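Here is the promised in-class demo. Please do not try to memorize the tokens; focus on the logic of going from shape to residues.
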């Protein structure tokens, strides 16, 4: 999982690599259409016509699809949840809060967050391996406030699903040498539950190509660390070859831990796992 600063990014921004910025007019038109669609949804909801309300959402799926390439540009083309480009299948614009119905932890259902169907802050770029299994799954902790159209309070909900645009959620994710996602050591019982349920519902450990790729990254970083330690041990006699080896390892490590690299979070965790301050300084900012 990779943190995305969605709150402070717009399609009109000119500093997003590999993205042709939208004009302000185009962005204003997109937002105006979103607002109009939500008004139509609200009218249908007021009439109790949920069938046509949900059909209106389906009929306008191309609207959120217009933002797919922008959402991917924010993550250097990577899925926000799996942090790979091709191994997690084709990309969807995933609605973090489901738009039609929401499934609780006990498999019961409640109405979805239809008023967020066209809100870009509810969009996430996700490979369809995980998105297909997640579906409308969106349970809340027992006792949590639950947002609705009349009393909207999404920010006060206590969700099971980890959110890539929340840096605190992303920080709950760690990895093991077998390529599995695990809870960050020292996490609370609730946070461990959140990690476990998110991993299960997004197939972050059940998709073999993904875990295999993580394992290979871990092994590669592990090898670089060993190379670095051997060279470091020989630098006491001002060995120029050893010093060059350390520079080479530093360069390779920064490539693997760069935000643009696939599975950079795995590479970073493999380094941090060693709890060595000098090694930690090798990690790309």
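The designed amino acids, position by position:
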């Amino acid at each position: 999982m990779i943190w995305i600063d969605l709150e402070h990014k717009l399609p009109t921004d000119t500093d997003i690599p590999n993205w042709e910025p939208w004009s302000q007019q185009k962005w204003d038109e997109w937002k105006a259409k979103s607002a109009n669609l939500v008004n139509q949804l609200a009218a249908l909801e007021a009439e109790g016509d949920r069938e046509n309300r949900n059909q209106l959402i389906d009929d306008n799926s191309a609207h959120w699809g217009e933002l797919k390439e922008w959402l991917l540009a924010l993550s250097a083309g990577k899925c926000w949840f799996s942090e790979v480009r091709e191994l997690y299948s084709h990309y969807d614009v995933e609605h973090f809060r489901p738009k039609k119905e929401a499934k609780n932890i006990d498999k019961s259902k409640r109405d979805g967050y239809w008023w967020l169907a066209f809100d870009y802050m509810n969009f996430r770029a996700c490979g369809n391996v995980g998105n297909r299994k997640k579906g409308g799954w969106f349970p809340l902790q027992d006792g949590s406030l639950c947002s609705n159209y009349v009393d909207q309070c999404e920010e006060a909900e206590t969700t099971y699903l980890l959110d890539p645009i929340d840096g605190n959620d992303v920080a709950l994710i760690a990895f093991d040498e077998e390529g599995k996602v695990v809870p960050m050591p020292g996490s609370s019982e609730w946070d461990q539950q959140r990690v476990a349920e998110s991993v299960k519902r997004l197939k972050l450990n059940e998709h073999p190509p993904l875990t295999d790729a993580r394992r290979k990254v871990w092994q590669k970083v592990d090898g670089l660390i060993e190379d670095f330690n051997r060279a470091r041990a020989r630098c006491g006699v001002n060995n120029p070859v050893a010093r060059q080896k350390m520079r080479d390892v530093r360069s390779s490590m920064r490539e693997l831990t760069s935000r643009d690299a696939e599975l950079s979070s795995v590479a970073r965790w493999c380094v941090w796992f060693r709890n060595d301050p000098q090694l930690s300084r090798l990690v790309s900012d």
